[in-house]
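Hi R.,

As promised on Friday, here is the backbone we talked about, encoded as structure tokens. Could you run it through your design pipeline when you get a chance and send me back a sequence?
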């Protein structure tokens, strides 16, 4: 096991939990920050406390985050990476979204990620550290029902670009992973059968991704031996959703029938 610690917010569920498992397999020690509750307790029971520290914290609570990162550094080990996966989402029509709901989403998804990244960067200065913020394809496209969520995830991308520039000479890289639809507890709660059908029509690979697929892209961006000159970038892991234009199965079938790979086209 390495000395260095990877902080994972939202590490008790879904994508964050998959990052924790993949990082443990690579020899990292992990500090999870997640809301107090059954998810965090399950993580605490599941993992060896010497390898995984689990702390109940709301990432939008600035003083709690500041204190916990200081405690990780003092009691657990030096931070070398941070993944901001804690987040909330809710599909609500613009006309039905209150300012309070909008602010709550911004507070957790943007301000929470901001405070964690800022404190992690302070701790990791000069250590060849890396931060990965989990955004969403909804931060890049106008997905219905996602005014607040999409705005929060777009903000995560811009914030990460600014951090990448400001931290570049501190030896801290900052990148973003933007998942498409991924089978996690959040999605099982929020995607109706109709929403699932809608996604199937617009994701060229015609499936949901897995948390493990997001975890491996995230760990690539954390690992400076693999991505040491990459900073400020957003990697969409979305089965082709963000690059798709016209994706009609019929016209593709016609074209590929006439395709001869041995001839120059
Ligand atoms: N699942 C998807 O399809 C999808 C797609 C794009 C982006 N994302 C993003 O990926 C991230 C993880 O989502 P997921 O699908 O794994 O969701 P999830 O609900 O399974 O996990 C999110 C975790 O964050 C924690 N969390 C929520 N609010 C918190 C707070 N205030 N403080 C600390 N922890 C908090 C939750 O307790 C939970 O353990 C989120 O940022 C989400 O927006 C998910």
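Update: got your reply. Pasting your designed sequence below so it's all in one thread:
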């Amino acid at each position: 096991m390495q000395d260095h610690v990877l902080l994972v917010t939202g590490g008790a569920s879904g994508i964050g939990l998959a990052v924790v498992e993949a990082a443990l397999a690579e020899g990292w020690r992990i500090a999870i920050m997640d809301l107090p509750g059954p998810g965090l307790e399950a993580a605490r029971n599941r993992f060896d406390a010497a390898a995984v520290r689990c702390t109940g914290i709301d990432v939008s609570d600035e003083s709690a985050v500041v204190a916990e990162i200081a405690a990780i550094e003092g009691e657990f080990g030096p931070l070398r990476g941070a993944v901001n996966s804690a987040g909330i989402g809710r599909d609500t029509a613009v006309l039905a979204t209150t300012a309070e709901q909008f602010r709550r989403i911004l507070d957790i998804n943007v301000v929470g990620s901001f405070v964690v990244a800022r404190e992690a960067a302070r701790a990791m200065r000069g250590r060849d550290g890396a931060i990965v913020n989990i955004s969403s394809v909804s931060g890049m496209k106008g997905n219905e029902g996602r005014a607040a969520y999409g705005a929060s995830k777009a903000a995560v991308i811009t914030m990460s670009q600014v951090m990448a520039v400001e931290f570049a000479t501190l030896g801290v890289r900052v990148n973003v992973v933007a998942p498409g639809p991924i089978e996690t507890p959040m999605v099982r709660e929020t995607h109706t059968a109709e929403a699932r059908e809608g996604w199937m029509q617009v994701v060229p690979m015609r499936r949901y991704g897995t948390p493990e697929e997001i975890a491996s892209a995230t760990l690539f961006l954390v690992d400076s031996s693999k991505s040491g000159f990459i900073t400020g970038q957003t990697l969409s892991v979305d089965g082709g959703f963000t690059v798709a234009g016209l994706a009609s199965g019929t016209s593709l079938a016609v074209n590929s029938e006439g395709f001869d790979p041995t001839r120059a086209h």
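One thing I noticed while checking it: The pocket of nicotinamide-adenine-dinucleotide is lined by residues 9-10, 12-16, 33-35, 39, 58-60, 85-89, 108, 112, 134, 136, 179, 181-182, 184-187 (CB under 6 Å).

Thanks again,
M.
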